[in-house]
Amino acid sequence: MGGRLPPKGSKVGLLGGSFNPAHKAHCQISKEALVHLGLDEVWWLVSPQNPLKDTKGMAPLAERVNSALSIPKHPKVRVTTIESQVRSVYTADTLSRLKQIFPWVDFTWLMGADNLSQIPLWRDWQDIFNTVKVAVFARPGYSLQAANSKAARRFRNVRVSEKLARSLSTRVAPAWTIIHGQQLDISSTAIRNGKRKD
Ligand SMILES: Nc1ncnc2c1ncn2[C@@H]1O[C@H](COP(=O)(O)OP(=O)(O)OP(=O)(O)O)[C@@H](O)[C@H]1O
Ligand SMILES: O=C(O)c1ccc[n+]([C@@H]2O[C@H](COP(=O)([O-])O)[C@@H](O)[C@H]2O)c1
């Protein structure tokens, strides 16, 4: 990974995504992660290819990286191609590589509520919860099912209340929370379909 190395003890949020294209909700949940979790930085991991998504309609990685770079966002958000550098499309693999490369960094995985419902389909999904802290962001239409999902039930004993979200950084994995911030009804799908511009 190029650029400045995170200092010892840094708290870094990881927002993995297709960013096909990037939009305002990605910026919004990144800002909320910085504020509510007290993170030092958020890294966007632009996925080479989500293993569960169709390759048809997936713009080339360079185009999606450009979209992530060009959208206005918080100065503490960094756009990265870490997954293509470590040749991983599976989050569990990416996280174990990141922990090897940056053993001094405290990582939190960030994702929207849709992905909390879907995560049991991911490779080695329970390892993800056991490796890093997880913060889930409420999303219009998905939050109720996410709160009762298989993953939420499996890890219910280590769920941290939203009021204590900031304490995630002092905890060891597994520990996770759901943050109900400003919820934006925006998706890359709607933008690709011409239903929205942002
Ligand atoms: N409106 C939103 N609210 C909360 N989280 C979101 C929102 N949009 C995207 N996310 C989260 O950001 C991460 C990256 O999302 P992604 O790039 O797939 O965007 P998307 O809008 O969900 O895309 P698509 O419509 O193509 O599936 C995922 O964890 C996703 O859940
Ligand atoms: O590891 C997996 O099996 C896996 C399956 C589906 C999605 N993911 C990751 O989930 C993140 C969000 O993906 P997306 O396409 O919803 O933005 C992104 O980092 C993907 O690589 C990971």
TrEMBL record:
Its EC number is 2.7.7.18. This is Probable nicotinate-nucleotide adenylyltransferase. It catalyses: nicotinate beta-D-ribonucleotide + ATP + H(+) = deamido-NAD(+) + diphosphate. Keywords: ATP-binding, NAD, Nucleotide-binding, Nucleotidyltransferase, Pyridine nucleotide biosynthesis, Transferase. The gene is nadD. InterPro entries: Cyt_trans-like, NadD/NMNAT, Rossmann-like_a/b/a_fold. PANTHER family: NICOTINATE-NUCLEOTIDE ADENYLYLTRANSFERASE-RELATED, PHOSPHOPANTETHEINE ADENYLYLTRANSFERASE. Belongs to the NadD family. CDD domains: NMNAT. One of its GO terms (molecular function) is ATP binding. GO terms for biological process: NAD+ biosynthetic process. Catalyzes the reversible adenylation of nicotinate mononucleotide (NaMN) to nicotinic acid adenine dinucleotide (NaAD). The keyword ATP-binding applies. Residues 14-193 form the Cytidyltransferase-like domain. It is an enzyme of class 2 (transferase). Pathway: Cofactor biosynthesis; NAD(+) biosynthesis; deamido-NAD(+) from nicotinate D-ribonucleotide: step 1/1. Pfam families: CTP_transf_like.
